[in-house]
Design goal:
Elements (H helix, E strand, L loop, with lengths): L2 H5 L23 H13 L14 E6 L2 E6 L2 H9 L3 E2 L9 H4 L8 H11 L5 H5 L2 H15 L4 E2 L1 H18 L8 H11 L7 H5 L11 H23 L8 H7 L10 H15 L1 H16 L1 H13 L15 H13 L6 E5 L3 E3 L2 E3 L4 E4 L1 H5 L41 H16 L2 E5 L7 E3 L3 E3 L5 E5 L6
Parallel strand pairs: 2-8
Antiparallel strand pairs: 1-2, 3-5, 4-12, 5-8, 6-7, 9-12, 10-11
Length: 467
């Protein structure tokens, strides 16, 4: 027998990051059960799932008199997200409307179709490639801000870096300089009024009880006024060349070759902020947390980044030099989807998976649940980035829905992934990431998937090899 085989170290056990407690049985079936669901979901939108939810592909329910169906079958979920018979619940728009108005994020029907078509040129690969210098500047700014610091709150640092990247890309403004007022308003809104509250749950529509939304209207109004002023200034003194998304928005035309109004441009800026700031920040946080607990993968990823440093990235094609980076981000999005729950309301009767759907039925599609479903993934709770390395394209994985699906799939997915890759690469090229505490970090879902607490990270500078 080959003794070396016996002496060879066994592969490390896969990382199983902690998650909210899975209840042994469902809460529903009675008023008391529904109240328990409401209590759990008010604490954490992914905190009310039971064991059966990770085994069953369809779960009918009734909640406070409204029929509903949880759909975890990927094909059925994609059909719902593609069908015009299913629309966003009206009251789901309440938290963000004061910030985004009638922008693409919340628009419906013909308005949405017109906006989506006119915005398509803004998010082509070539257009996103033109924004890479903004991401590189934001990544370099993050590295500079953390230089010399050994113990940091990376959740906070990534929040600032992602916001800086978005404001640079939108308006060519730094979050810590000429864009400071915008940054302050954006953070105050997204970290406070943007989250669901009790009035959102009990209201029947988007305009119910809005007299109680004073903070939303006040901060949202200040943001809209600030963006209006930027648009007016840019029209008065346009850039000689395209530098940012505002330049591209001003140049868009609809199918009748008509330019957008200033109000529509303003609302699209709010949509881009709401869709691209906190979601990317959370992606970066969860990725750093996983890498801190998996030093081997972190070291491999660092070697990949140092072989092709972020300052060499000049186009989206250059990001292909980081296949492991892409796989790590996708695996992070699988375990920690930025948007963990998608709801749709049925307009007409239908049938899904053999279950009758009546008009008004709430169809719940949870990427959190689908991405961890025991019938859809091998080792569903394990961090295993290699599962995406062999995929020609992750969107080909039917059970992978981090950006939604169908016509309303996130138009800015390429923007967000390029931003995340460059910011993370700037950090990994300079430091090793570790955790200061072994206290488990539990995901808590609201408008995005965040942590139950923000842990401190230990940053150890990389010793540069001498030539």
């Amino acid at each position: 027998m080959d003794v070396s085989i016996l002496d060879a170290p066994s592969p490390p056990a896969p990382l199983i990051p902690p998650a909210p407690k899975v209840h042994p049985r469902p809460f529903g079936g009675s008023l008391l059960g529904e109240l328990r669901i409401a209590r759990e979901m008010s604490r954490n939108l992914v905190g009310a799932y039971c064991e059966a939810d990770f085994e069953d592909l369809f779960t009918p329910y009734t909640f406070l008199g409204q029929p509903g169906l949880v759909v975890s079958d990927p094909a059925s979920a994609r059909r719902v997200l593609t069908s015009p018979n299913y629309v966003r619940p009206v009251k789901a728009n309440r938290p963000l409307r004061p910030l985004v108005g009638e922008g693409l994020l919340l628009a419906e029907g013909a308005t949405w179709k017109r906006q989506r078509k006119s915005l398509a040129p803004v998010f082509t690969p070539a257009a996103i490639g033109g924004l890479l210098p903004h991401f590189q500047d934001a990544g370099a700014g993050l590295a500079e801000a953390l230089d010399g610091r050994s113990r940091v709150n990376l959740a906070e640092a990534f929040h600032q870096a992602a916001l800086d990247a978005v404001l640079r890309a939108l308006f060519s403004r730094r979050a810590d300089a000429e864009g400071a007022v915008l940054a302050k308003l954006a953070r105050r809104y997204m970290e406070g009024p943007a989250h669901f509250n009790l009035m959102d749950y009990v209201s029947k529509g988007a305009d119910d009880l809005t007299f109680l939304d004073g903070e939303r209207r006040r901060i949202g109004g200040q943001w809209l006024d600030a963006v209006d002023a930027l648009i007016a200034a840019r029209r008065a003194a346009p850039h000689p060349e395209v530098r940012d998304l505002l330049d591209r928005l001003l140049a868009t035309r609809d199918e009748d070759d008509a330019p957008p109004s200033d109000r529509e441009i303003r609302d699209q800026c709010g949509s881009m902020l709401a869709a691209g700031f906190e979601t990317t920040s959370r992606l970066l946080f969860w990725t750093a947390l996983l890498l801190a607990q998996d030093p081997a993968t972190q070291n491999r990823l660092r070697a990949e980044v140092r072989a092709f440093p972020p300052e060499r990235v000049a186009s989206l094609d250059d990001l292909k030099a980081w296949p492991l980076m892409r796989s790590v981000l996708f695996e992070t999005l699988r375990l920690y989807p930025s948007v963990p729950l998608i709801a749709r309301t049925a307009l007409e009767a239908d049938e899904i998976g053999g279950f009758a759907v009546v008009p008004g039925c709430m169809v719940t599609i949870s990427p959190w649940l689908i991405h961890r479903h025991r019938k859809l993934w091998d080792a569903p709770t394990a961090f295993h980035p290699e599962r995406f390395l062999d995929q020609p394209h992750p969107w080909a994985v039917e059970a992978f829905l981090p950006f939604g699906a169908g016509p309303r799939v996130c138009i800015g997915a390429g923007f967000a992934l390029a931003e995340a890759q460059i910011i993370l690469a700037n950090l990994l090229a300079r430091v090793e990431i570790g955790l200061a505490s072994e206290r488990p970090v539990i995901p808590v879902a609201s408008i995005t998937l965040g942590p139950d607490h923000e842990p401190d990270f230990i940053l150890t500078p990389i010793v540069q090899a001498r030539p």
